C-alpha cells in the first residue's frame, strides 16, 4: 500500500460539487514546475520535513519518493513542485491513476516552514489543480473516485483536505518492514507445500480476491486489471520500521 494511508469508498458527487472555489493562481513570487525524478532530493526534503514535524520521524525513503515521481506508463500522473519567492521547494502536488485501478489518488506534501496563511492558500490552489486534472482524465459520462489522506499529526493537512471537500473517515496505523534474505525464506510447515505465486498467477488472483472480499477499502478487480496494478508497483522499495498513524479521507467523485 502506498505510504499515505488507506483510502475508502464514499458517496458519489457530480462535477459541479467538484468545481474548484480556490484561488486561480499562486501567491506573487511563487513558481510552479513539473516534478520529475530529477527533483527527487528536493521533494524528499519536503516530505521528510512534513513527516518529521508531524511524527518525529520519516518512514519514507528517497527511493520511495523517486518511485512516485517516476511511475512508468501506463500509469497516469500529474505532479508539480512549488517554490517560494526564494526558490526553495515548499510543496509537492501529485495525482496518480495506477494501471488497472479505477481510483485516482491525490496528495499535497507541505514543508512546515511555510507560513500557515500562505501554506493554506498554496495548498488550495494545488488541490483545485489536481481535481481539475482528474476531471480532464475521466472518461466522458463516467464517474471516477478520488481518494486522499494525510499524516494524523498534520493540522495543516486536515485543513487542506476538508477545505477541498474531503471528509475524514478514520485514523489507522500502517505497518511496513524490511525485506531481507531471512524474511524471503518461508518457514517449513508440516503437510503444507509452498510454491511461488508466479507459477500460477490466476490462482493467486482468485485466492486474494476471495480472501479480501468485503474487507474495508478493498476493491475487486478482474485478472488483467489486477496483474497490471500489481506490476505497476514492481519498482517500489520497501521501507523499514512502522509507520505512524494516518487519517484517511472520504473521497470525492465526479463524472
Walk me through the structure:
The protein has helices at residues 15-18, 40-55, 62-69, 116-137, 155-163, 181-184, 201-212, 223-232; strands at 31-34, 76-83, 89-97, 103-110, 144-151, 167-175, 242-254. Strand 2 (76-83) and strand 3 form a beta hairpin. A 7-stranded mixed β-sheet has the order 1-2-3-4-5-7-6, with helices on both faces. The radius of gyration is 19 Å and the shape is globular. The chain has a single domain, classed as Gcn5-related N-acetyltransferase (GNAT) (Aminopeptidase), CATH 3.40.630. It is built from 8 helices and 7 strands. Helix 2 (40-55) packs across helix 3. The protein starts with 14 loop residues before the first helix and ends with a strand. The chain has 255 residues and is of the alpha+beta class.
Count of separate structural domains: 1
* CATH class designation: Alpha Beta
User: With helices defined by DSSP (H or I, 4 residues minimum), what is the helix count?
Assistant: 8
- Estimate the strand proportion: 15-25%
Number of strands: 7
Classify the fold: give the CATH topology. Answer: Aminopeptidase
Question: Biggest sheet: strands side by side, in what order?
Answer: 1-2-3-4-5-7-6
Arithmetic mean of pLDDT: 78
Q: Report the helical percentage.
A: 25-40%
Main sheet properties = 7 strands, mixed
Alpha-beta content class:
alpha+beta
Architecture in CATH?
Answer: 3-Layer(aba) Sandwich
Q: Could you give the order of the helices and strands?
A: HEHHEEEHEHEHHHE
Q: How would you briefly describe this protein structure?
A:
The protein is of the alpha+beta class. It has helices at 15-18, 40-55, 62-69, 116-137, 155-163, 181-184, 201-212, 223-232, and strands at 31-34, 76-83, 89-97, 103-110, 144-151, 167-175, 242-254. The chain has one domain (15-181, 197-254): 3-Layer(aba) Sandwich (Aminopeptidase), CATH 3.40.630.30.
Amino acid at each position: 500500500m502506498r505510504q499515505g494511508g488507506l483510502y475508502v469508498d464514499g458517496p458519489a458527487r457530480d462535477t459541479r460539487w467538484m468545481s474548484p472555489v480556490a484561488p486561480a493562481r499562486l501567491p506573487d513570487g511563487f513558481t510552479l514546475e513539473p516534478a520529475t525524478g530529477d527533483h527527487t532530493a528536493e521533494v524528499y526534503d519536503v516530505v521528510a520535513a512534513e513527516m518529521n514535524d508531524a511524527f518525529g520521524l520519516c518512514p519514507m525513503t528517497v527511493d520511495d519518493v523517486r518511485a512516485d515521481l517516476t511511475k512508468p506508463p501506463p500509469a497516469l500522473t500529474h505532479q508539480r513542485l512549488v517554490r517560494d519567492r526564494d526558490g526553495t521547494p515548499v510543496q509537492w502536488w501529485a495525482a496518480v491513476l495506477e494501471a488497472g485501478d479505477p481510483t485516482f489518488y491525490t496528495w499535497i506534501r507541505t514543508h512546515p516552514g511555510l507560513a500557515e496563511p500562505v501554506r493554506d492558500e498554496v495548498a488550495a490552489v494545488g488541490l483545485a489543480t489536481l481535481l481539475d486534472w482528474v476531471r480532464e482524465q475521466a472518461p466522458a459520462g463516467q464517474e471516477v473516485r478520488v481518494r486522499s489522506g494525510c499524516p494524523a499529526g498534520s493540522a495543516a493537512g486536515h485543513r487542506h483536505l476538508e477545505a477541498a471537500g474531503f471528509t475524514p473517515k478514520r485514523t489507522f496505523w500502517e505497518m511496513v518492514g524490511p525485506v531481507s534474505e531471512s524474511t524471503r525464506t518461508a518457514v517449513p510447515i508440516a503437510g503444507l507445500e509452498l510454491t511461488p505465486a508466479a507459477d500460477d498467477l490466476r490462482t493467486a488472483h482468485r485466492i486474494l480476491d476471495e480472501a479480501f472480499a468485503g474487507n474495508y477499502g478493498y476493491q475487486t478487480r478482474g485478472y488483467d486489471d489486477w496483474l497490471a496494478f500489481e506490476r505497476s508497483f514492481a519498482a517500489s522499495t520497501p521501507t523499514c520500521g512502522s509507520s505512524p498513524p494516518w487519517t484517511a479521507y472520504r473521497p470525492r467523485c465526479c463524472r
